[in-house]
Amino acid sequence: MFASSPLDDRAITTVCQDYSLFKRTLQQSRILEDNIIPRLNGLTTRQPNFRESCQRFEDTLQAAYRSRERLIAECLRVRDERISKNRAKLGPYSPEDDSDLSNEIAHDEGQRRAIEREFTVEEILRSRTSNVFKTRCADSTIIKDFWDVRRDAKPVSESS
Fold first, then answer.
1. Number of domains the chain is built from
2. pLDDT, tens only, 42-58
């Protein structure tokens, strides 16, 4: 779904409605990095223009990184919105007054924390990927912040 091309805005919004789909989408998108060593070995042994091949791979990585940042940011926004709406419904009542709603809020807060942790996963993954990439594509001229995770990526609702 995502390994070869970034998600569009409508797809991101749909993915954020279902936490399981969010996790599967991230897993599929990370296949690119899971196979980085064989991919880069292919660049070094089979491509006539090695520097150009590294640049194309870098462009693919960057598109995947930015798309995942937007996905995570949008899913955080969706969870925050759901939590706020449910808290407003709960109102001044104590949590015991509406245990179903309180449980839903707690569930969404747990999923929000899990979504937030995906930024840390991104940092680890990019660190690992950058070490391999820099070794194989040493001549590549990557912008300084290429490997940085942008935790302040604009969610879909703000990027339009």
1. 1
2. 776 666 777 788 888 88
